[in-house]
TrEMBL record:
Signal peptide: 1-19
Protein name, per record: Putative 5.3 kDa protein
Species: Ixodes ricinus
Top-level taxon: Eukaryota
Annotated keywords: Signal
Amino acid sequence: MRALIICALLLLHGMLSMAEKGFSPGVITPYIPKCGQTCTRSSQCPTDCKHCLKYRNRNEPACSKRNRV
């Protein structure tokens, strides 16, 4: 019984110290692909490369620019 109380207090202490540091497990940052990374639709891609295109040398579409210089 004493070990259970000690474990509970250690768990509570750990949770309080994590809360002081600003840890929040419910916040998940959305995945935003960069240019050249895989995507599923154009709205996922950043503004500098706003197209989600399928290439011959890749299995999946990737964020890229339309103008190829």
